[in-house]
Amino acid sequence: MSARMSARMNVRALSRALVIGGLAMSLGACSLFSSSTAPKPAPLETLTPTLQARVAWEARVDSVKFPLSIAAVKDRFVVGGSDGVISAISATDGTTLWRADIGKGLTAGVGSDGRFAAAVTRDNELVVTEGDKILWRKAMPIPVVTAPFVAGERVFVLTLDRAVLAFDAQDGRRLWELRRPGEPLTLQQSGVIGAYQNTLLVGQGSRLAGVDPTRGVLLWESTVANPRGTNEVERLADLVGPMARDNDVFCARAFQAAVACVNAERGNTVWTRNNAGVRGVSADATIVVGADASDRLTAWGTRTGDVVWTADQFQNRKLSAPLVTEKSVIVGDSEGYVHFLSKDKGQTVQRLQTDSSGVAAAPVQLGGTVLIATRSGRLYALRQD
Fold first, then answer.
1. The dihedral of CA 118, 121, 125, 129: what is its sign?
2. What are the contacts of 8-13 at 24+ separation with CB within 8 A?
3. How far apart are CA 148 and CA 305, in angstroms?
4. Could you write out the three-class secondary structure of the chain?
5. What is the pLDDT along the chain (385 residues), one digit of tens a residue?
6. Full-model pTM
7. What are phi and psi of 339, to 5 degrees?
């Protein structure tokens, strides 16, 4: 790691991004315990279920060997596999509505507005489809690990160095590029990008920024965390996805630093709480839920930031980011178990098992269906009755 850290910051942009990516991967490797000293996952609780949940249907994509995110839009889930095949799957019964083979494996999840879908390949090529028809391809100047965001017939891409590029969804014309003063290090982990009304929201370092989507002009930025530490690694506080939303309030996690909620209408931070986690958060009108680095879950009041409950029954189980639903909080783990917690107290009320490859991404909800994806590429649609 020290050799890479000696790299000069005035190298060309592509080289800089590759160095940043290398540092990020090295950071992750340095933080791992050896197999003999790794903390053991908490044993599964003896459980008497008080919530009815079931697998409604199953489907499959190729294995998942990249930072997966799944688009849930209209009546379908849009998801990609490691083989570069993008599939639109009916949320109702799991039938495949269309498939598009973009020819290369993926480096990030798929973004879609229901008409257009966008993904980035291992060759760092942005590919946009309309259904199963490939419309265009374009090489990206910097590596991408965050799923593109598609809205308003535009495709927005957040690169590894946290620059934002906008393209016309139909013909691939570059519309604008926003490049803010960069951080010395960034994470090779999915960042934050979304929208509120006519404002594009992007994570840039430890800040959430509001951007004019037509011109690429910064409208406001709000601090999620104030990085502290004696070196660049300790001060690393990138915003990591997924981001949570309740109307005009958006909540996000700064890596190993804090969770905060921002009012996107006014562009100001509503509250921030120190919490050293590495996965994104989920929220509804009452609670924001996230896990710290040891997989202790905390629920904060969405409007106040007050702690509602904590749950430590899943420590060291390598949890996914959670999903807050109307009936429960849902989270997956590295052994393939899906846990359901009560929203008022954080107690486990149900548990289902998928396959042993482990849950690969945050659960995603569309209507009454929650989709779980595993590392082996199996998709499980869950319904709470």
1. negative
2. 9/184, 13/141, 13/142, 13/161
3. 30
4. CHHHHCCCCCCCHHHHHHHHHHHHHHHHHHCCCCCCCCCCCCCCCCCCCCCCEEEEEEEECCCCCCCCCCEEECCEEEEECCCCEEEEEECCCCCEEEEEECCCCECCCCEECCCEEEEEECCCEEEEEECCEEEEEEECCCCCCCCCEEECCEEEEECCCCCEEEEECCCCCEEEEECCCCCCCCCCCCCCEEEECCEEEEEECCEEEEECCCCCCEEEEEECCCCCCCCCCCCCCCEEEEEEEECCEEEEEECCCEEEEEECCCCEEEEEEECCCCCCCEECCCEEEEECCCCCEEEEECCCCCEEEEECCCCCCCCCCCEECCCCEEEECCCCEEEEECCCCCCEEEEEECCCCCECCCCEEECCEEEEEECCCEEEEEEEC
5. 333 333 333 333 333 333 343 344 334 433 434 455 788 999 999 999 999 999 999 999 999 999 999 999 999 999 999 999 999 999 999 999 999 999 889 999 999 999 999 999 999 999 999 999 999 999 999 999 999 999 999 999 999 988 999 999 999 999 999 997 766 566 778 999 999 999 999 999 899 999 999 999 999 999 999 877 667 777 788 999 999 999 999 999 999 999 999 999 999 999 999 999 999 999 999 999 999 999 999 999 999 999 999 999 999 999 999 999 999 999 999 999 999 999 999 999 999 999 999 999 999 999 999 999 999 999 999 999 8
6. 0.90
7. -110, 140
Query: Is there a contact between 76 and 96 (Cβ–Cβ < 8 Å)?
Result: no
Closest CA to 145 of 240, 235, 221, 209: 240
Q: Which amino acid type is present at position 8?
A: R
* C-alpha–C-alpha distance, residues 366 and 359, integer Å: 18
Amino acid at 375: R
